[in-house]
Amino acid sequence: MILVLIINIVNNSSVMENESFFISEISTNWIFINNTIIATLLILLPKVMKFSNYILYYYNSIMFSVYFSIAIESIGFYSTLHRLAIYAPIEILGLSISFCVGKDTNLSKLEKFVLFIISIILLRIAAYIEMEVINNVI
Predict the structure, then answer these.
(1) DSSP code of residue 17
(2) Distances (CA, A) of 95 to 5, 51, 61, 79
(3) How far, rounded to the nearest angstrom, does the alpha carbon of residue 70 sit from its chain's CA centroid?
(4) Are 8 and 15 in contact (CB under 8 A)?
(5) Which of 40, 48, 127, 130 has the least CB density, counted as fewest CB within 10 Å?
(6) Quick one: which of 69, 53, 48 has its CA closest to 1?
């Protein structure tokens, strides 16, 4: 997140100038499906490439930073932090659980499955809250 902000400041550019970052149709299901795909890949990809979950987790963090920059330019720093504080910890926890499940080989299949289900439940809750925040309900 800090990297994207520094690059914007150094280049004296605006993330808002690039309209390709905007998504015309955001819904709770879209957010949930996107996060579920990321969570599933965080668990499955390390079986193919050992460090792939690190790459995916950091890529997702960079994309979050881009959206964070857009939000700061749109509604301001404090308003952005206030909105993120409502749902981001839940979403980060869900993705972090998936990251740990993909990384830890000492867990049984049942433990991995239960943790994955917990991750999915957290991501569903976060997607619902995020959509309410986007719609200015919360």
Answers:
(1) G
(2) 23, 16, 11, 24
(3) 15
(4) yes
(5) 48
(6) 69
pLDDT digits (tens, 9 = 90+) for 50-67: 888 888 888 888 888 888
Contacts of range 133-137, beta carbons closer than 8 Å, 24 or more positions apart: 133/83, 133/86, 133/87, 134/26
Hey, is 50 helix, strand or coil? coil
The whole-number average pLDDT for the span 27-50 is 87
Q: Are 31 and 133 in contact (CB under 8 A)?
A: no
Note the pTM of the prediction, 2 decimals: 0.73
Torsion of CA 38, 53, 66, 68, to 10 degrees: 70
Q: Which among 84, 74, 98 is positioned nearest to 126, based on CA atoms? A: 84
Q: How far apart are CA 125 and CA 133, in angstroms?
A: 12
CB atoms within 10 A of CB 15: 20
